[in-house]
Design brief:
Structural class: mainly alpha
Oligomer: single chain
Helix content: over 70%
Number of helices: 22
């Protein structure tokens, strides 16, 4: 069979089954049965397929499960919601206040969850109803929430970054570190865009007085131990307003910041490998949530409550992590065998020879790769498009990256940014539908798409910047060596 016929057969099988609405894992398994029977030893290949699935599960994939668990602990115990509320109290009269809160809060939660869907769903369910009630226009209310949700793909701990580096057999630590500067840069540009646009058109986000609590009731603090009150204090006026903003930051943001330091700091300073850092992050999340529970019982602050830490919340976090992780592992095993079928069919080599015959520069090849990902992102989810293109882009000595000697860390960061952009591109941008699910019923999908477009252009600008200046992505991981 000619290589192009094999390529059409295998890719067509995957795409057809996904368009029928069946799970991605089943689509890859179906293509594997066809590919293994035709190109990998026939019936013997089908017998050996379970062994190939077993070999596809690697120890380097463990951080995915642990990063997911870390985010689920913070989500199920309510700590994530407390952190967003604390950021809201810190910002008083900045134009587009709640939109700015969504950018800052989303960036903070991105550094703790690693899940784009969880990030968008939490911010949308917590902030969007309040925005709409206060008269925010949909264009400035929904856009920042969706845009900052995608930053979780870049800022560690990113489950997709771990998946990409593991499958490409590259350094997970380097890729996690490499995403920090582009992710922070993107968040800063979102922040600046919201403020500038709200200054130009104040009607987009009406101003309102910050809620510092009823002024006729002073803020009270008390320290209790075993039912006895050891100390108490009462504050009003300026002192009350100041404490209302500072205390939530000290109680909810500072402890969560320590989790980020534990994960990223241990990797950057080579104290721990990514797997060990992910385990330490889970323990730090558990400890932070337990701290909030103990603090709630010891220190009583009017208007400020601790997190709902209990073992039922931890159990729910474990269950949700197991569900997501099982799905991811099924997709990974299916995709790796799919890559072998592509290689044995000659499709990978044939396509590579076609691209090589065009006599392109490495930069031209990278641009073609990004265009392919942007196109696929309009129709597929990120994991599917990554696993479909990985055999051609990164895997093995015959891939485009190896043939044209492209910096692998830089290329992987570009791929993550491109997949982040595809989260917001119609017709099937995943975060567009997540937002539709949490938005009020009368908000149309067209409004959601229009609110996302300015942020898509900002992300494209960052992508162009990284293509023009690779050091933006490669400098920081270079310091880890």
């Amino acid at each position: 069979m000619e290589w192009h016929s094999a390529l059409i057969l295998l890719l067509g099988t995957v795409c057809l089954i996904m368009f029928m609405g069946l799970p991605v894992a089943l689509a890859f398994f179906a293509a594997n049965v066809v590919g293994t029977a035709l190109f990998i030893y026939g019936d013997i290949g089908l017998v050996l397929m379970p062994m190939e699935f077993h070999n596809a599960i690697k120890f380097s994939l463990v951080p995915i499960s642990l990063f997911l668990l870390m985010g689920e602990i913070l989500l199920q115990t309510g700590v994530a919601f407390k952190a967003i509320g604390a950021i809201d109290k810190m910002i008083s009269r900045i134009p587009g206040r709640l939109s700015v809160v969504s950018v800052i809060g989303g960036t903070v939660f991105s550094s703790l969850s690693g899940s784009t869907i969880a990030n968008t769903a939490i911010l949308g369910s917590v902030l969007l109803p309040d925005m709409m009630k206060r008269g925010y226009k949909p264009s400035i209310a929904m856009g920042p929430i969706m845009a900052v949700g995608g930053i979780a793909m870049l800022i560690p701990p990113s489950a997709l970054a771990v998946l990409l580096a593991s499958l490409a057999e590259q350094s997970v630590a380097k890729l996690l570190i490499a995403g920090i500067i582009p992710g922070v840069l993107m968040a800063f540009l979102f922040f600046a865009y919201v403020i500038i646009r709200c200054i130009i058109d104040p009607t987009l986000a009406p101003t309102y007085e910050p809620d510092d609590g009823a002024f006729d009731q002073p803020l009270t603090l008390s320290v209790n131990w075993r039912g006895r009150q050891l100390w108490s204090g009462s504050y009003d006026g300026r002192m009350k307003r100041g404490l209302n903003r500072i205390l939530p930051f000290l109680l909810y943001i500072m402890p969560l910041g320590s989790i980020f330091i534990v994960v990223v700091g241990s990797i950057f300073f080579k104290i721990a490998a990514p797997t060990e850092a992910a385990a330490m992050g889970c323990l730090a999340s558990f400890a932070a949530c337990y701290f909030f529970r103990i603090f709630k019982n010891i220190v009583k602050i009017s208007g400020i409550n601790g997190a709902d830490f209990n073992f039922s919340a931890i159990w729910k976090a474990l269950i949700e992590t197991a569900k997501i992780n099982t799905m991811i592992l099924f997709i990974i095993t299916g995709s790796l065998v799919f890559s072998q079928a592509l290689a044995n069919s000659g499709a990978t080599d044939g396509l590579l020879q076609q691209v090589t015959s065009l006599d392109l520069t490495p930069l031209g090849v990278v641009i073609i790769m990004m265009c392919v990902l942007l196109f696929l992102g309009a129709f597929m989810d990120q994991v599917s498009m990554l696993l479909l293109t990985l055999p051609f882009f990164l895997l093995g000595s015959t891939s485009l990256q190896a043939t044209f000697d492209i910096d692998v860390t830089w290329l992987m960061v570009l791929m993550l940014i491109t997949m982040e952009i595809s989260l917001l591109t119609p017709p099937f941008g995943l975060l567009l539908y997540v937002m539709k699910g949490v938005a009020p019923f009368d908000v149309t999908l067209g409004q959601i798409v229009r609110s996302a477009l300015p942020f898509v252009f900002i992300e494209l600008a960052v992508l162009v910047l990284l293509i023009a200046f690779p050091a933006v992505a490669t400098w920081l991981p270079g310091q880890v060596q």
